[in-house]
Fold this sequence. Notes:
The strands form 4 sheets. The chain has a 7-stranded parallel beta sheet, with helices on both faces. The protein has 15 helices and 18 strands. It is α/β, with parallel strands linked by helices and 470 residues long. The protein has 2 domains: 252 residues, Rossmann fold (3-Layer(aba) Sandwich); 188 residues, 3-Layer(aba) Sandwich (Rossmann fold), CATH 3.40.50.720. β12, α11 and β13 form a beta-alpha-beta unit. α2 runs parallel beside α13 and α6 crosses α8. The structure holds 1,4-dihydronicotinamide adenine dinucleotide and 2-oxoglutaric acid (AKG). 1,4-dihydronicotinamide adenine dinucleotide binds next to α6 and α8. Pathway: Amino-acid biosynthesis; L-serine biosynthesis; L-serine from 3-phospho-D-glycerate: step 1/3.
Amino acid sequence: MSSARDINPGAPSxxxxxxxxxQNLSTSPVATxxxxxxxxxxxxxxxxxxxxxxxxxxxxxxxxxxxxxxxTGRDILTAQGYQVEALKSSLPExxxxxxxxxxxxxxxxxxxxxxxxxxxxxxxxxxxxCFCIGTNQVDLTYAARRGIAVFNSPFANSRSVAELVxxxxxxxxxxxxxxxxxxxxxxxxxVSAKCWEIRGKTLGIVxxxxxxxxxxxxxxxxxxxxxxxxxxxxxxxxTARQVPSLDNxxxxxxxxxxxxxxxxxxxxxxxxxxxxxxxEGSYLINASRGTVVDIPALVKAMRSGHIAGAALDVYPNEPxxxxxxxxxxxNPWAEELRSLSNLILTPHIGGSTEEAQxxxxxxxxxxxxxxxxxxxxxGSVNLPEAQLRSLTLDEPDHARVIYIHRNVPGxxxxxxxxxxxxxxxxxxxxxxxDLAYLMADISNVRYEQIKDIYESLEGLSSCIMTRVLY
Length: 470
Ligand SMILES: NC(=O)C1=CN([C@@H]2O[C@H](COP(=O)(O)OP(=O)(O)OC[C@H]3O[C@@H](n4cnc5c(N)ncnc54)[C@H](O)[C@@H]3O)[C@@H](O)[C@H]2O)C=CC1
Ligand SMILES: O=C(O)CCC(=O)C(=O)O
């Protein structure tokens, strides 16, 4: 099923169509693009086979995947016929800017900073896939202003983070890191002083979202008492108990673990005053974001013995790739941290398990394909969420119009005037702040009319981005 022939059987054998972003892209009718369900064509009534919408030949879609995105995600994108370039690490800003000018889709994890400066160079960019939970590395507001959708995977690695934290609680309580380092150096140091069971100890969870609540269940199963603090009132799992303030939590917990997003309010949320409030001999764990803990204050509290141990998985500055980078050049206190005992340092591996990475690869890649091919925004973190049921194979002269626009009065009237020569079969429109997203499936569209529709919509003063899929 080639999209060109579905629309217009008489289409010339080579054609140029207007793409979603206004470039002229040459497409070849010889490259037949199969819907994933096309192979079912003989078994199902024709009406139930969704039509795969294509703005143009998928080989024209260029995707850059950074930070070793899992093979599951790469396979899904490659199977669509997109051009996929996958790199193992992130890129320095100048190289990123160079690459981003040319691509339609970028896939990243937590290291790649997609700031306004970088995104303003991304003239063709349609969508960003964050193959992780956090989206703080992307300027979401600017992306929305440009009509660039952002997707993430909201919980596929939550369990992996929670399990890491459980491991760290026991490791800190038993000083396992230090004993192991000593043995690697040939030193036998059998001690029990200040080594504890975790049974009956209190775990204080800051941020009771996907990770915090999962951790709560695991910790209780191991005999811990769980308290949590969150800005939102949330249902307690098991016998966990929400406390009214961060101070309450710090004063009561033997282990404090942080699971909040990077927000202006969470930056240096744990500094000298909060560390002083923590119990003598208590422990701190941070697997959220490096900005949440004031590290020099933590170093001081650990040197004094007030904090008996800590585990850090995240840092204010993290290197783009693997190597000998954890030095003062990266963060000015790195070498001091490395000299402390009972301090577990891990290189942002909370979500780094085979299970999590495979699941994230599938989830985010599928969201990207749905968005590229059909304009569906379900799960987007910065655009209104909208979907229309698929067009089917018995609707050959249909097109899907997607109009991302400023949320100002009178837009729908103007859009419907433009679409008015065609039958609007179904339409959805939703807004989020200053931005609105409209999808309309129109029928009786001849191939030659697509360019006119596209140009008329692009000519409206409210336009941010227009796409016509057919
Ligand atoms: N180390 C790693 O590899 C990973 C780190 N993360 C980090 O963990 C963070 C948390 O992840 P999820 O649990 O999935 O997020 P979530 O969004 O499900 O939960 C976050 C919770 O924090 C609460 N919160 C927000 N501001 C707060 C404040 N000022 N004080 C107290 N509570 C506050 C929210 O109400 C929410 O309940 C992510 O934002 C990400 O930065 C996530 C995955 C892997
Ligand atoms: O695995 C990664 O690269 C990032 C994990 C993380 O911090 C997240 O999912 O927010």
